[in-house]
Amino acid sequence: MDIRNKKLSDDEFYGIRKEILEQWPTGKDVDFDEAIEYHKSMPETKSFSRKLSAAKKERKTLIQPRAGVALIDEHIKLLQYLQDKGEADLLPTTIDSYTRQNRYEEAEVGIKESIHTQKSMLNGFPAVNHGVYGCRQIIENLDTPVQVRHGTPDARLLTEICYAGGFTSYEGGGISYNIPYAKDVPLERTIYDWQYVDRLTGIYEEAGVSINREPYGPLTGTLVPPSMSNAVAIIEALLAAEQGVKNVTVGYGQCGNLVQDVAALRVLEELTEEYLEKYGYEDVTVTSVLHQWMGGFPQDEAKAFAVISWGSSVAALAKATKVIVKTPHEAIGVPTMEANAQGLRCTKQAISLLADQELKSSALELEKAIIKGETCAIVDKTFELGMGDLALGVIRAVKAGVIDIPFAPSKYNFGKMLPARDHEGAVRYLNTAHVPLPQELIDFNRGKIEHRAKMEKRKASFQMVIDDVYAISKGRLVGKPK
Amino acid sequence: MDKKKLVIGVIGADVHAVGISILQHAFEDAGFDVTNLGVMVSQEEYISAAIETGADAIMVSSLYGHGELDCRGLRDKCNEAGLKDILLYVGGNIVVGKQPFNEVEKRFKAMGFDRVFGPGTAPETTIAALYEDFGMEAPKTED
């Protein structure tokens, strides 16, 4: 596999495409020209790119749930409820975990069992099995733009079907849907497969249909230092832009410290725009997404609403273009539609209260400078390792631990970098391992964690990290000793 | 006495990686010999690891809701592989959505699991069950 950060040629793309569409019988229903016509016949109000771009201009924060069930009719009912009773501005279709691993036979069993037991036996919507026309039923029964959300290392067939099916936004990327979502898939493979996804997006764009792309921001959702997730999001935005993507939403998962979170999201959007411009991608619209707390949740629903409100506050104060909403059932698993709508309405209320407020402080400026310094150090080193080629660079950077994602299942992740919270709950590097931070930023991180250790009268260690992972579900942000 | 041996892992197409490494840590601290298969473990992988290590228990984690589809037939496969009396535990968010736990427990016990644990179970709860099922005394803590 000869990977370069270069737009796939038509020969290369269409050569792969033929094989992709034969992976499952529903692939035969994908017809590009007909799909373009279908998209152009849709009302503009169903375009994700358009709605995001407008929200960015108005500095509005839109709300979006996660949701997906096994059967088409049930899925439509669920999304209609979230649209009408949850007041969602944007809708999702969350894909089930079998489809994410290309296990379409098992998804088929899940569909049959769901019909038989009259409850969804899958944790999402198996879009490949339902095919182009199944997807279109969803789009046609809603007034709101719908995005595909998943976690699929090889998403090429899924993308083909979903784009032809009328979805106008698509989550994922070659790093963010590999390292946190797979055990044994080489990074070369997913970078290459996501070039295909991005190129397909570019081809739609060139035909006059803008599809929004969203690198998956939170990664493992567990104590990921903001600069690490920011670096990955920026790199994926650059890789997407090379393939012709013009509408990108970069994401960040709430860590818990208000000032750090607002700083992280502001820096992410600013730096993405800067890097895109620096590397010659000038006509890309960049928006941002804040993911409410991705870690363990309290079981008590009242307490869960507090966590949801906290994330909503971050989104509003950071002026995120949209926020992905959690539900009061988070501790249990997949929520009921009522619980999902409650999470949405709670979020909408918090956002509307904070919409016109701006967070300004010297602490925020300091935090922005720290995150910016760390993020640029990682991204620039990645370019350097690839000798200017970002695709090569990222493969080498992950191998070398320059990009190192905590708690990731992938065996290709370096796994030596260790994060922990500081005394105020901001996520810092306890051990940078091979993450190439300048000495003064290493010292800054170390100082912050040593301060916590002193306050807690214990040594900084892995136990601190374990305590931090459990903390929120026990009602606290920092895992302090009893 | 030799340490009791556990095979642990997250079943199916599930990639939730955080909890399983914490469970490994907790079970080892509690005095067990732990083989952690990580995420996306198939039934066959649990069984061959159990045979290879001479395990006393297989501990199945599932966080993503497909537990019911993924766990079916595991007890039969254990029996066929000669692991007739091996202890089988399952825990996590093992079904899709909020369902009454006593019904979920009944369904999984009917599938042959000895113990079934719901969402948010603390490692100490599972450890106490292991001590009971192995007829072991809980080690005295130092403080």
UniProtKB/TrEMBL annotation, chain A:
Species this protein is from: Blautia argi
HAMAP family: Me_Asp_mutase_E (MF_01923)
Key words, A-Z: Cobalamin, Cobalt, Isomerase
EC number: 5.4.99.1
Entry keyword annotation includes ATP-binding: no
Gene Ontology terms for molecular function: cobalamin binding; methylaspartate mutase activity
Catalytic activity field: (2S,3S)-3-methyl-L-aspartate = L-glutamate
Entry protein name: Glutamate mutase epsilon subunit
One Pfam family here: Met_asp_mut_E
Superkingdom assignment: Bacteria
Cofactors, names only: adenosylcob(III)alamin
Function: Catalyzes the carbon skeleton rearrangement of L-glutamate to L-threo-3-methylaspartate ((2S,3S)-3-methylaspartate).
Binding site for L-glutamate: R66, R100, R149, H150, E171, Y177, Y181
Annotated residues for binding of adenosylcob(III)alamin: G68, N123, P180, F297, K326, E330
NCBIfam families named among the record's database cross-references: MthylAspMut_E
Sequence similarity: Belongs to the methylaspartate mutase GlmE subunit family.
Annotated metabolic or biological route of this protein: Amino-acid degradation; L-glutamate degradation via mesaconate pathway; acetate and pyruvate from L-glutamate: step 1/4
TrEMBL record, chain B:
B12-binding domain boundaries: 3-141
Positions that bind adenosylcob(III)alamin: A13, D14, V15, H16, A17, S61, S62, L63, N93, I94, V95, V96, G97
The entry's keywords: Cobalamin, Cobalt, Isomerase, Metal-binding
Pathway recorded for this protein: Amino-acid degradation; L-glutamate degradation via mesaconate pathway; acetate and pyruvate from L-glutamate: step 1/4
Domain of life: Bacteria
GO molecular function: cobalamin binding; metal ion binding; methylaspartate mutase activity
Names of the cofactor(s): adenosylcob(III)alamin
Keyword Nucleotide-binding in record: no
Listed GO biological process terms: anaerobic L-glutamate catabolic process; L-glutamate catabolic process via L-citramalate
Catalytic activity: (2S,3S)-3-methyl-L-aspartate = L-glutamate
Family matches, as SUPFAM superfamilies: Cobalamin (vitamin B12)-binding domain
Enzyme's top EC category: isomerase
Gene3D superfamilies noted in UniProt: Cobalamin-binding domain
The enzyme's E.C. designation: 5.4.99.1
Pfam families per UniProt: B12-binding
Family listed: Belongs to the methylaspartate mutase GlmS subunit family.
Subunit structure: Heterotetramer composed of 2 epsilon subunits (GlmE) and 2 sigma subunits (GlmS). GlmE exists as a homodimer and GlmS as a monomer.
Function text: Catalyzes the carbon skeleton rearrangement of L-glutamate to L-threo-3-methylaspartate ((2S,3S)-3-methylaspartate).
Protein name listed in UniProt: Glutamate mutase sigma subunit
Organism: Blautia argi
